[in-house]
TrEMBL record:
Name of the coding gene: dinB
Alphabetized UniProt keyword annotations: Cytoplasm, DNA damage, DNA repair, DNA replication, DNA-binding, DNA-directed DNA polymerase, Magnesium, Metal-binding, Mutator protein, Nucleotidyltransferase, Transferase
Taxonomic source organism: Sebaldella termitidis (strain ATCC 33386 / NCTC 11300)
GO molecular function, one term: DNA-directed DNA polymerase activity
Protein's name in the database: DNA polymerase IV
Domain UmuC: 10-186
Length: 356
């Protein structure tokens, strides 16, 4: 990467043949074999099967024709998701600036680590750690923004890595390749481009911004203009350690009436769940804090089985914690704190959150 110092350094990881690799890991007889996971349609295929042209979203009948020895396995989706969550927990324990896109893919802002590591040594540490804990391999891309990192993680699959450290390197990497290589340019945009004889990224460079706006409208036109030039200022959407979800109320008098405490809690929890919604965050632990007229302070926590931001669930939990307190009078302060926080695509949600 020519010793270029990046202002931002973003890592994108993507597990290799995720569902198929899990099956091969769990059953040594499947190692090195052409396997696919799916029933009517293939979800994914091992790299051995891909040599025959077997691909995701392909009907299994077609896959079997292409590769008669293909071993087709049923989908164990809950199990794969559980492993995906384990991987996310592990990555989050390495560095908190992460945004998970799906069970097998995510971004990590590793800018601050570049003082201590070279990009190569960080990638090695990241991949080794993931392998040590899961016995699964991933591919990694390192870029100066999310777009270049995502593109780079596809460059040396499986179990490889690639670094794109500047717009210039981005340009050189993409210019002669098919437009479909650019993350964010979907099939819907590709079709009209291909129909006009625009196939490579270089072909798009010959179009002006206005040409693209005429074809796709302002938003999409400008977006495509920027994407092919490696421009993407979006941030890794992580949960800041400073993000805090708590509410406390100090009473101006001693409160003996439990109904008043209930009202306070309900009001606090409604405010907090509103904030959770705005930040698109879910929580798993509810902590109740109470201070009495003698200034003694007690906190009690309960961790739920599933993530939630449902006010009924949180309120009921807070009331249970309150009813467990030995002393239920002479309150001077009551408060609720929500912790163990996570983003939407990271979590197993409660039933109420899923179906509201
Ligand atoms: P991908 O990361 O797209 O594919 P992959 O991990 O199997 O292979 P690789 O990244 O090495 O190219 O998707 C992750 C998982 O999502 C995949 O293992 C199975 C599932 N999936 C589907 O169920 N249907 C699909 O059409 C695709 C593309 C993936
Ligand atoms: Mg993958």
């Amino acid at each position: 990467m020519n010793g270029v110092i990046m202002k931002r350094c973003i890592l994108h990881y993507d597990m290799d043949a995720f569902y198929a690799s899990i099956e091969q890991r769990d059953n040594p007889k499947l190692k090195g074999k052409a396997i696919a996971v799916g029933r009517g349609v293939i979800t994914t295929a091992s790299y051995e099967a891909r040599k025959y042209g077997v691909r995701s979203a392909m009907p299994s009948v077609t896959a079997k024709k292409l590769c008669p020895e293909l071993i087709l396995l049923p989908v164990r989706i809950d199990y794969y998701k559980k492993l995906g969550k384990k991987i996310q927990d592990l990555i989050q324990s390495l560095t908190y600036k992460c945004e998970f896109i799906s069970s097998d893919e995510g971004y990590v802002d590793i800018t601050e680590y570049m003082k201590k590591y070279t990009p190569e040594s960080f990638i090695e540490k990241f991949k080794n750690s993931l392998y040590k804990h899961t016995r699964l391999t991933c591919s990694v891309g390192l870029g100066y923004n999310k777009l270049s990192a995502k593109l780079a993680s596809d460059a040396n699959k499986p179990n490889g890595y690639f670094i794109i450290s500047s717009r210039e390197e981005f340009h050189n990497y993409v210019k002669d390749k098919s437009v479909s290589i650019i993350p964010g340019i979907g099939r819907k945009s590709l079709e009209p481009l291909n129909n006009m004889g625009i196939n490579t990224v270089n072909d798009i460079f010959n179009l002006t911004k206005n040409n693209l706006i005429d074809m796709f409208g302002t938003n999409k036109g400008v977006r495509i203009f920027e994407l092919v030039r490696g421009i993407d200022d979006s941030e890794v959407d992580y949960i800041s350690e400073r993000q805090s979800y708590g509410q406390e109320e100090t009473y101006s008098r001693t409160v003996d009436d439990i109904e008043t405490v209930h009202d306070t809690l309900l009001h606090q929890i409604n405010k907090l769940t509103e904030k959770l919604r705005l930040d698109n965050i879910y929580i798993k632990t509810v902590t109740l804090k109470a201070r009495y007229s003698d200034f003694s302070t007690i906190t009690r926590s309960k961790t739920l089985n599933e993530y939630t931001r449902n006010s009924d669930i949180i309120y009921t939990t807070a009331l249970t914690l309150l009813s467990d307190l030995a002393k239920k009078d002479s309150f001077r302060l009551i408060g609720v704190h929500l912790s163990h926080i996570a983003k939407r695509n990271y979590v197993q949600l409660s039933f109420k959150d899923l179906f509201k």
